[in-house]
Amino acid sequence: MENTKRTVTCGELRKSDVGKKVVLNGWVSRTRNLGGLLFIRLRDRYGITQVMVGDSASDDVKKIAASLKSEYCIAVEGVVNARSDKDINADMATGEIEVEASDIQIFTTSQELPFSIEEVRQKDGTLVVANEDLRLKYRYLDLRREPMQHNIILRSQVAFATREYLTSKGFLEIETPTFIKSTPEGARDYLVPSRVHPGKFYSLPQSPQLYKQLLMVSGFDKYFQIARCYRDEDARGDRQPEFTQIDMEMSFTNREEVLSTTEGMMQYIFKKTLNYELPAKFDRIAWEDAFDWYGSDKPDLRFDMKMQDAAFMADLADFNAFKAGAANAGRDIQRHKRSGLKALVVKNVADKYSRKNIEALEEVAKTYKAKGLAWMKVVSTGSTTDTVQFEGGISKFYVGKEAEICSKLGAEKNDLILFVSDENWQLACTALGAVRKQLGKDLNLYNPNDEFHFAWIIDFPYFAWNEEENHWETEHHMFTLPQKQYWDTLEQDPGAVKGDLYDLVLNGYELASGSMRINDPALQERIFEIVGYSRERAEKAFGFLVQAFKFGAPPHGGIAPGLDRLVMLMCHEESIHEVIAFPKNNLAASPMDSCPSPVDEQQLKDLHITCYDVEKDD
């Protein structure tokens, strides 16, 4: 073959190309030898083309074709032929054609694969996939799999669409440092020792928070960055040590503009990459309502089932477990004026849920510190008390009260009613909310016409009380602007203060967090004092930012959607590992290149670092 460089990709050819002489490059997906005919499925990231080696091929070409195995990297020269009608593969974009090979050259061979790159499905339709550590050890092979290629390509498209949209709105893409000063931001920092400054360390940024605020002081009123961030915290499905966020900040703005800009960006991204229409405006739910209705500040709204206040139940029977929840006891409940006795009506499932099923739901509730999960089934309903009956669970305590309960909770025949009661309103909500989430998954309650349901959670508490350390701390970060109506009473009643902050949630995940920022040094110092930051400590950690605020800082605010999490949800995956090219595993390690790993003793000496034997020290 004189020229092995491809003239077309493996996903490009169509019936209109019949008769053309082409060169393809790619990997052998599989081969079929039918005696006189040999077929090769040739794959690249653009698709698959069937190559046919027939009687007219030379003996050398037939010999090479017969030697091919999975994942050999080859070049094929040949002519595009139309397939007969009976041989057309409607499942392939190139299914109407095949390339009759006149020459084949092997670039490189392949060892036996550690796992199959081709999709293998069981009889029930589930996909057989190698375990994650094996996939990560051979990630370069895993990335050849069609699902992974789809995910990584979509990620690239989402990043490009983000840049398109924000640039069109006047935003400037500005990079901020990767080596920064270590500041307390919640998680542990990753530290980088300095060779030039012995005993001193850089920190990898948990976010560009302080720098994007400094850019606002600098006069760049619309900033964005697809920013790499680092947090030394335990990994889970939707986070890992290094991640990427779409970081945005605006000056001379307000909450409404930040929210509408973010909505517009999401609408553009989904339309451009998935051709999916999002609503013009996303739902907005106050933090208290989100917990009261759904038991979470990141509710999954693809199904409706709301929790209800069941405080009235405590007065209908002598059932002690409900008394504390209905009593509005505890600091949180006094603050929020909400009952800690919550009910969930699960429609038309009473006949499907056995005691064993309900006990499984109770274990979910107990995971979130609930004392138990009370329940009863509606076995019949009618217009009079005599025809309304409950069955099982706590039903014996409410004989004669069935009609009133059904009326107030909207329960009907064959409904299952679940209750969690606790003197702590938020605990009761969280536990029953976890049950709600599990039911949504178990019963597949998701609205098929509501594939991506966004919502804004607003009016968060600004401060939270740390019981263990006996002091106030901020719910988000210390640079969040308190809502203006609380400025005069910050110190007198921190628990009542709401922040001018907002979270964007999607399908039960927190996708973005943002806020309006403090730009007044005096107000910033008051926040430091409330959370127990001395003037000296605040100066040491954040002095450069507070100093900048003394030179005419504009009002500003922003938000930072997680790119990994966004693409994960767009791909309907459950882990961000599936949308990151080279992720770490759940132990924050890379099986492929064995990092983190020991380094040369001389490197440590250059950095003035001495390592001790951890196992021996323990």
Automatic annotation (TrEMBL):
Subcellular location(s) per record: Cytoplasm
Keyword Ligase: yes
UniProtKB keywords: Aminoacyl-tRNA synthetase, ATP-binding, Cytoplasm, Ligase, Nucleotide-binding, Protein biosynthesis
Residues in Aminoacyl-transfer RNA synthetases class-II family profile domain copies: 154-583
Binding site for L-aspartate: 185, 231, 476, 517
Main location: cytoplasm
One BP term from GO: aspartyl-tRNA aminoacylation
Taxonomy, superkingdom: Bacteria
EC category name: ligase
Catalytic activity: tRNA(Asp) + L-aspartate + ATP = L-aspartyl-tRNA(Asp) + AMP + diphosphate
Keyword Cytoplasm assigned: yes
Pfam families to which the protein is assigned, alphabetical: GAD (PF02938), tRNA-synt_2 (PF00152), tRNA_anti-codon (PF01336)
Record region (Aspartate): 209-212
Residues annotated as binding ATP: 231-233, 240, 510, 562-565
GO terms of molecular function: aspartate-tRNA ligase activity; ATP binding; nucleic acid binding
Gene Ontology annotations for the cellular component aspect, listed alphabetically: cytoplasm
Entry's EC annotation: 6.1.1.12
Functional description taken from the UniProt entry: Catalyzes the attachment of L-aspartate to tRNA(Asp) in a two-step reaction: L-aspartate is first activated by ATP to form Asp-AMP and then transferred to the acceptor end of tRNA(Asp).
Subunit structure: Homodimer.
Family per record: Belongs to the class-II aminoacyl-tRNA synthetase family. Type 1 subfamily.
HAMAP family: Asp_tRNA_synth_type1
Protein name per Swiss-Prot or TrEMBL: Aspartate--tRNA ligase
Organism placement in taxonomy: Bacteria, Pseudomonadati, Spirochaetota, Spirochaetia, Spirochaetales
Gene encoding the protein: aspS
